[in-house]
Amino acid sequence: MSPLNVVITGGASGIGLATAILFAARNAHVACLDLRPDVPEPLLGVEADVTDDASVRVAVETAADKLGGIDVLVNNAGIGAAGTIEDNPDDEWRKVFEVNVFGIVRTTRAALPYLRRSAHPAIVNTCSVAAVVGLPDRAVYSASKGAVLALTRAMATDLLADAIRVTCVNPGTVDTPWVDRLLDAAADPDAERAALAGRQPIGRLVTADEVAAAIAYLASPGSGAVTGTALAVDGGMHGLRPRT
Ligand code: NAD
User: Fold this and answer.
1) Residue 198 belongs to what domain range?
2) Span 109-167, pLDDT tens digits
3) Contacts by 102-106 with C-beta closer than 8 Å and gap 24+?
4) Total number of domains in the chain
5) Looking at ligand 1, which atom is closest to the CA of residue 205?
6) For the segment 64-87, what is each residue's pLDDT rounded down to a tens digit?
7) What average pLDDT does the segment 187-192 reach?
């Protein structure tokens, strides 16, 4: 089989970068689309803002030209926001949905003509445990990830006709620069880290490499019968209720 050509949004940090490095280690050709596409060799960095349709179209076309097509799209770019239903102004709701939901729409739309030409096409969206569990202080973020889960299933259904598989991963709290920023902003970062680790039954944060491995599985031709699936990578957070 020829090497897979992979495009990853938000591919310059955290889960996206770990996924890019894993694919590259498995001989894939990988383009990382990001606001600041500063990525190590052999990854191809392409500047893109998923909130801007023209930027996404140019970036996807550039990636497809340089890679020689697209087999796998990982819609991973995302931003967070803290707050209950009363806390976030309308502009913040729009901003989070612009990146987390409409970003997937724009990137997928631009990539579909290339995916349709692939022998092993797959789309993997980075969703979240927040799509399926009520978390405190995450109203807008959870709503956006709930939309990603529903969109994943809708896309998987529509794209059956093209034999393009669409799946998502639902990570728990993952040790990435994103969580470092959250901890930096906390009054007591050590206590906050312990609380985040403690709410996951495995007793620790998930690693970016563990999420990358799940994304690589879902994207691989070996998972050819897997579509519309949400794969939890959450340390048991969704399904388990151990006694403490
Ligand atoms: P991160 O902040 O380390 O990386 C996110 C990347 O997305 C950054 O490189 C950033 O520049 C890029 N990005 C942001 N806005 C963009 C835009 N408009 N256009 C292009 N790129 C943009 O975060 P991460 O923790 O690796 O998160 C990646 C994904 O995983 C997100 O979708 C997030 O919601 C999801 N997720 C993260 C966690 C977690 O605990 N870290 C848990 C569940 C889901």
Assistant:
1) 173-205
2) 999 999 999 999 999 999 999 999 999 999 999 999 999 999 999 999 999 999 999 99
3) 102/50, 102/51, 103/9, 103/50, 103/51, 103/56, 103/75, 103/77, 103/78, 104/50, 104/75, 104/148, 104/151, 105/151, 106/50, 106/53, 106/56, 106/57
4) 2
5) 40
6) 999 999 999 999 999 999 999 999
7) 95
pTM, rounded to two decimals: 0.98
Same domain, 125 and 139: yes
Residue 242 within a domain: no
Q: What is the CATH number of the domain that holds 84?
A: 3.40.50.720
Verify whether residue 217 is a known catalytic residue: no
Instruction: Determine if ligand 1 sits within 6 Å of the CB of residue 111.
Output: no
Is the domain of 17 the same as that of 51? yes
User: 10 CA distance to ligand 1 centroid (A)?
Assistant: 6
- State residue 1's pLDDT score: 78
Dihedral angle at the C-alpha atoms of 139, 53, 91, 95, nearest 10 degrees? Answer: 40
Q: How far is the CA of 165 from the centre of ligand 1 (A)?
A: 22
